[in-house]
Amino acid sequence: MAISSNSCLAIICSLLCCWMRTASSLNLEDPNVCSHWESYSVTVQESYPHPFDQIYYTSCTDILNWFKCTRHRISYRTAYRHGEKTMYRRKSQCCPGFYESQDMCVPHCADKCVHGRCIAPNTCQCEPGWGGTNCSSACDGDHWGPHCSSRCQCKNRALCNPITGACHCTAGYRGWRCEDRCEQGTYGNDCHQRCQCQNGATCDHITGECRCSPGYTGAL
Predict the structure, then answer these.
(1) Signal peptide: which range, if any (predicted)?
(2) Cα distances (angstroms) measured from residue 183 to each of 75, 82, 94, 191, 206
(3) Which of 12, 181, 201, 214 is the least buried, fewest Cβ under 10 Å from its Cβ?
């Protein structure tokens, strides 16, 4: 049965509307995007054979009607009606634990990541120097780095940088872990000060105080 141009146009319009509704700005290749197929109904114009009583004439022996008799038969003509058509579309949305932001599905953390960022549902990645589930706790003196996961290697009461792990030596010590005393003849912070001791006296590597050799007295 032939389909009229009006019917074809109605179907094309329905398909176009379907495509426009299903077009999504989310990237289906994104692992954080979930999708499923759903059905829906659209109204379409469809053709069908409509019966009608067709009158025609045949030759017969009816003299009164000039040998012409009226006959009836059921014939069909193409008619149109509105109907419903089930169609399917792919619906995309962010997977559980994610929400849409600027056409992307980003993870959601119930607690704000104070000093960090949300990298997975309810999972924060902390900045160096911070730890805790929501990155709100500063590293203690023995730890450094993201999530305070690295242990400090500083010696002799040196201060550990919570971000880099670098050791800030106390007076009288040097080295990347502050494990060495100042060289003889130097003392103080970063061992930058020169000892003033005389006559073979030894210099305290922390304070610069002189310890006199036997037979000598005085500050230097």
Answers:
(1) 1-25
(2) 118, 99, 63, 8, 11
(3) 214
Give the domain CATH number at 131. 2.170.300.10
> Which whole number is the average pLDDT over 19-28?
60
CB 155 within 8 A of CB 170: no
Q: Binning pLDDT at 50, 70 and 90, where does residue 213 land?
A: confident
Could you list the residue range(s) of the whole structural domain that residue 191 is in? 184-220
Counting the structural domains of the chain, the total is 3
Q: What is the pTM of this model?
A: 0.60
Verify that 140 and 156 share a domain, yes or no.
yes
Cβ–Cβ under 8 Å, residues 62 and 135: no
Of 67, 101, 135, which closes a domain?
101
Angstrom distance (rounded) from CA 39 to CA 45 = 19
CA dist 59 → 53, 74, 75 (Å): 20, 20, 20
Per-residue pLDDT tens digits for 59-81: 988 888 888 899 999 999 999 99
Cα-only R_g, the chain:
46
Over pLDDT 70: what percentage of the chain?
Answer: 88
Q: Which of 74, 101, 128 is the last residue of a domain?
A: 101
161 shares a domain with 77? no
The percent helix, strand, coil of the chain (3-state, each to 5) is 10, 45, 45
What was the pLDDT predicted at 24? 53
